[in-house]
Amino acid sequence: MPVRATKRGAARPPFLPGADADVLICGASFAGLTVARELRATGARVLVLDRYEIGERQTSACAAPTEWLRNMGVEASIRQTFGSLLVHTPQVAKARWTLPWTFSTFDYPSLCEGLFEQSGDAVFDTAKVEGRTGTTVHTDRGDVTAGLIVDALGWRRVLGPGANVQPPEAALSRGLEVHPNGLGADLELWIDPRYVDAGYGWSFPALDELRIGVGSFDPHDPVKQPTLRLVDDVDASPDGYQGNWIPHRLRPAAEDGVFFAGDSAGHCLPLTAEGIRMAFYFGIACGRELRAVLDGRSTRDEALASYGAFSASHRFAFECMYAAQQSIRHLHGRPLDGVTRFFTRRRVSEWAFRHYLDIAPPSYAVPSPPAARAVAAVAA
Predict the structure, then answer these.
(1) 11 pLDDT band (50/70/90 cuts)?
(2) DSSP labels for 201-268?
């Protein structure tokens, strides 16, 4: 697990009065760093802010389609690669679902560092983002003003207008996992009401550790005891807890003059809770719209409208996934066992997962953004 490295005290002086940037990206995880990467050749003054150091705070099982990782230039972070899923239900001990593409676990700090290294002269600093008034973002170190603002801070949607709905009332799933040392050969899923009625358990091997957890689509459901039960069932130890809330409904990706990317816009697929690929995908889309503004090919308002429409165009796919998610609690028993066995047919699983990948295809990341050129430093 990452060691806390965030600056404190005298190492975090206030920002200078009048601190500003051309683009202010709030959030330095998958979505925010992807946006910064897209802007590397614009010559813009890009400032990335996050409460924590880059790569410090992992909050997911950290896995994504291998081709996405390669196309994003972060394949060096890959820890283990898989070509199938091993699924368990109470009556189906093992059902192997073949994938038409591979899925890889990765090292979170390495991936984040790899993304930021591709961001040209973007500047990173630590600050807790607390809110916004117009084009000015308020932090615990003072204000920063920017003509283009991105909220990639996560499900709290800190820079959105008005008060946010909080869990358990918000459209969020919840997950908890542990990271014991250990080896594994398979990506494994448990769809079993012994652990959780509306959700599933998982084990994602990553070379010398196992990422074992339980997620519930119902934010009212506790997940600690189910996680401990699964850990005990697979003879592992509950080391290195981490948990998070996971959005499962799309939200406006452009609102009140702000671009939202990643969890702040609900860019996480329902049912599978796959948010990393979505953060890459929509982060690229957001960055391309910002690039058009910086290059003079578009206005901010035009970019907001275009990006918002692009995100909304995926609503049907997200709603289909949401409908499947909501059906899980009603399928336990013979219906779920039948579906589980049906997907062991290679043609069925490959057809389904090929369409699933096409919701956000890895080809979208190609070509990479233009190479960085020398730019002026951000005044902050």
Answers:
(1) confident
(2) EEEEEETTEEEEEEEESSTTS--HHHHHHHHHHTT----S-EEEEEE-S---SEETTEEE-GGGGT-S
Q: How far is the C-alpha of 243 from the C-alpha of 221, rounded, in Å? A: 14
Q: How far apart are CA 354 and CA 352, in angstroms?
A: 5
pTM above 0.90, yes or no: yes
Burial class (CB in 10 A: 0-12, 13-18, 19+), 10: exposed
Domain count, the chain: 1
**Ordered DSSP codes for 278-321:** HHHHHHHHHHHHHHHHHTTSS-HHHHHHHHHHHHHTTHHHHHHH
Which of 122, 144, 146, 132 shows the shortest CA–CA distance to 22?
Answer: 146
* CATH value at residue 252: 3.50.50.60
Q: Is the pLDDT of residue 377 over 50?
A: no
Residue at 125 is within a domain: yes
Nearest alpha-carbon partner for 183 in 77, 79, 57 = 79
Could you give the angle at the alpha carbon of 115 between the alpha carbons of 362 and 290, nearest 5°?
A: 75
Residue recorded with tokens 């192997």: 96
Q: Does 2 reside within a domain?
A: no
pLDDT digits (tens, 9 = 90+) for 12-42: 899 999 999 999 999 999 999 999 999 999 9
